[in-house]
Amino acid sequence: MGAGLVGLSIAWWLLGRGHRVTLLDPTIDGPPPADGGSWAALGVLMAQVFHRSSGRAWRLRQRSHQLWGSWTAQLASEGLEVPRRQGLLLLAADAAERAQQERLVATRQAQGMPLSLWSGEQLQALRPWIPAAAGTGLHSAADGQLDPPALMAALLTSARRLGLHTLPEAAVRLERSRGLGRWRLETSTGSRLETPWLVLSAGVATATLLAGIGQPLALEPVLGQALELELAETPPWIQVAPGQPGSGWPGAVVWRGLNLVPRPDLPGGRRCWLGATLEPGARADAAALERLRRWGEGGPAWLERARVVRRWQGHRCKPSQQPAPVLEQPEAGLLVASGHYRNGVLLAPATAAWVAEQIEANTA
Fold first, then answer.
1. For 298-319, b where at least 16 C-beta lie within 10 A, e where not — what string?
2. Residue range 265-288, pLDDT digits in tens
3. How far from 299 is each of 127, 129, 350, 363, CA to CA, in Å?
């Protein structure tokens, strides 16, 4: 249950492997939820630039990085194009960050991954479009960005072609069952569903349902605000597709944890996305939005002349007592795939693969 990007990915993957799936979400057939984390995401994929080189988080990122290629190819073969914009540049804010990037490049190059350091001279070609304080950068040609709304629409369309059953209702209670299904789910309309396998991927609501069966899970919302801007002048990224040879533009650009995503495909060709903030809790902070509007401290002057076309926000679900994401089987037939925090788009394929492996390894 849960029709955000992770939930849709799980449903699509399971259907493709021959499983029957019912997807439960009150917004599945209507407008997107106002606070949905998937709709707030910018879809920036940070796999090879991840600062670790071992452990669960690293393995999940690399598996997803590989799967995204085959997933988008599969959707494209069905006429469901989801452009994957290649290229990611992390700007260094100080000497310590530059030193960390140098170590990471050496490690990745030994692994055969195409990371590279951009010197101050290389960054000069991007000025005045990047913050003046950025001295060097780390570029990944293999990382990049996917458009979350387009991706969710494609996954839902493909899943329905595969036989997905959807139920536009909210789950209100979870119970163990003594029948053929291990689990009974009661919905907001009083309906009761029984199933041998239940996958919870419903953000912070996951914790509420688990608490009802004595399975505590600490999850908290972290609000993120984002902006779509229309530039007053012609940006450099519309000359050639971002991240493509000869464009001179590196793709998505990250500065002090905030992402600039060129969107020349949007009306007028002069638009970009900027986001997202990190605000613990559920209430938006005007000061955080103002900082975002300036791309942090010392943002370039073109931001002041840009027009805000759209502003949106959503809640990312973050585990408060364990690393993100939560991928667990607390009881037989019950899987938790939630708490992806800032990496729901990146980790969706690996999460779906994990769910399928648990079900198929424990099904006679």
1. ebbeebeebeeeeebbbbbbbb
2. 999 999 999 999 999 988 999 999
3. 11, 9, 35, 54
